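Summary for the steering committee. One of the milestones for this cycle was to obtain a three-dimensional model of the protein with iron/sulfur cluster bound, which we needed before selecting residues for the alanine scan. The sequence and ligand used are listed below.
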Amino acid sequence: MKLEVLPLKLEERTTVVKEALDAGDRLGLITSIDGGQLLTLLLSPQMHTVTCFQTPIEDPVYHSITSLVPQAHWFERTTMDMFGLLPQGHPRLKRTHLHEPYAFEGAPLCNDVRDVDAHAYQFFDVEGEGIYEIPVGPIHAGIIEPGHFRFSCYGEIILNLEIRLGYIHRGVEKRLTEVPCHQARFVAEAAASDMPVANALAHVTAMESLLDFVLPGSCQFLRTAALEIERIAMHLSDLGGLAGDIGFLAISSSMARLRGLALRMGELLTGNRLMRGYICIGGVSMHSSSESRRELIKVAEQLKQQLEPVIDLYLANQVAIDRMEGIGKISCSLAREFGLVGVAARSSGISYDCRRYWSHALFPGEDFEISVEQTGDVFARAKVRIREIKSSLQLLMKLLQEPHAGPDWVPLPEELPRNSSAVGIVESHRGELIHLIITDHQGKIQRYCIKDPSVNNWTALAIAVRNNLVADFPLCNKSFSLSYSGHDL
Amino acid sequence: MLHLLSYLLSRGLATNKLIPEVLADGVTGLPKVTRNKCVEDCLACVHACPTDAITLKTVSPIVDRGACIGCNKCVALCPTGTLANDSATATYAYNREDLLVEAEQIKLGSGTRGGIFDGSMAVRVVSTGCSACDLEVAAANNPIFDMDRFGMQVVASPRFADALLITGPVPRAMHQPLLSCYEAMADPRIVVACGTCAVSGGVHRNGYAGANGVSPILPVDVFIPGCPPHPWQIILGLLAARRLTGRRRVTAGEGKANRSKALTGGEGI
Ligand code: SF4
Ligand code: SF4
């Protein structure tokens, strides 16, 4: 979607944002271009509109809006790290991305040298008799990305969890402004390559809107198929992980087998298990023969058949359900306040799915069922995932039966328009993913901002584990399925 | 419980018995260089490559598989068939230079695939990347690929690990944690760089975050290129690493030397 950047005065900013959110808008993201301004992206799902406000900032200090708009808290911290802009009055100001080894270099995305060193990292202290801390990470016991968790506990109970990320900050956003724009998609995919399709789709959606180009349905169909296959595969992997964390190994390995089928579908469509490098500007990069298309339908049917008994066995096990029910609860009001997205939001009663509102691939034109649960616990998140696998599979099979004649790829101009901005919003398996692109007066990408769904949802994990047992932490964690690399960039 | 058992029995064995030599039909691997000569002044692949992995040597290109993310663009653009898709499952190399492939030259570590009594290897996985590699390492553990049957286990502590498998480009904030993990391992210890990022930094190379792969920080014994590598490629790379465990007997002095090399080795720590 192409954006018009509207000016907004610093004094009015808090009121405008607060009023918009009260009226049902979402805070898309807060960032800056080069440290001389604040950008605030407001999404209005009901109106299908996105508004981007630009607030010039001379002094690198501005008034924080976090105490009125809690979901701004993480964005303000990140903007400090990356641009050296200090949000005054932020209740817990500390870095999100840059660790001590970066100490002397100021803010990487800002042109001037700004010193934010005063805000070195400090953990939140919980004090009192019998209270102790458990530090975990950055390197974890299993095969997962790095991050640090600091639990303050009383006995077996978690009183507070502080999450420190940024260990795999690779400079993705900066790199995206350096590479030639026809190669940018590979970097965009590497933002979080367990969802390469969603990232590539958000990237091309933004790029194609910049170029004012609408693709033929045949290209969009292939992209939709890839997106849904990715959702199925990742939801299966998350469900398997959940089963593994409660020691239900029969189910976790059965899920791994099912995921194998989902990956096979990806392979048949794109030549790659994870479908990397498939979606490109102007369409898709690989032609799949009608033979492999037929095979794909077969595998999808197999998956549908084999899924049922595994789900039945999973949900028939009372011990498994007891481990998940009532654990890691997030209330609807908290979910709204912190702007949660994806499965986490839908499990807490918020029926927000980007596929209904924002244009990407064939959406919002395609019909599908949104699954919503009210209880907000681990079990709710598992149930939402199960239903989403089924509805995605149904959508995929419906699409594959339809004829979609037309090209896979159409050539587009390589030159981007000057001084423009566009945004791509995609419902990844984790939730709302935003890519925002701004070009300068030469038509070069000046700022590329990625908002991974995990940026919203990491806070949810910290809240959900409060007053739960330490032993239930892995379960809560898995149920949110958060990305470290998507956050750290 | 009985339902569960009968279901599991009814599903039979998922595991692929043999490690295939090549990936399934239609699956993209890494590029290889054939003997076909390039068209003069073509350079299509050199310009197309997103990671600058291709250089041109007089009449044919040299592909650095350690920098390649397997996007297949070069193969698709090459007018002469000089570059072709290589779907081999054995892609690992013991030396970084061996990942530079020229016409029909792919220098892989030699050796047998190993028999059932070849011993085991405990692997500690440290992820420093984008998590696609992690997914594939985890998949190598699943019932379909099942690396456990070769005696290779993923363990939860460096203390009892024989090999350290690293994914991702090791950005700056992970330099120290990675070193500490290596330090905690007993000699002899083997370092495996898994994935193009770990081998060279991949698309993140030479950025401000110092994400240039494992080599600037630790001495690497086995390189597994690919973005991400296929689970078979990972398993074969680990089998190659296991062959080193038998051969490597560390003398008292060497262990110490390794350690100090590691501690002073990395730049910008
Ligand atoms: S396949 Fe590898 S060498 Fe070829 S263009 Fe892609 S990254 Fe470069
Ligand atoms: S090599 Fe590729 S898949 Fe592996 S960490 Fe790097 S970008 Fe990710």
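Key point for the committee: Chain B touches chain A through 63 residues (CB under 8 Å).
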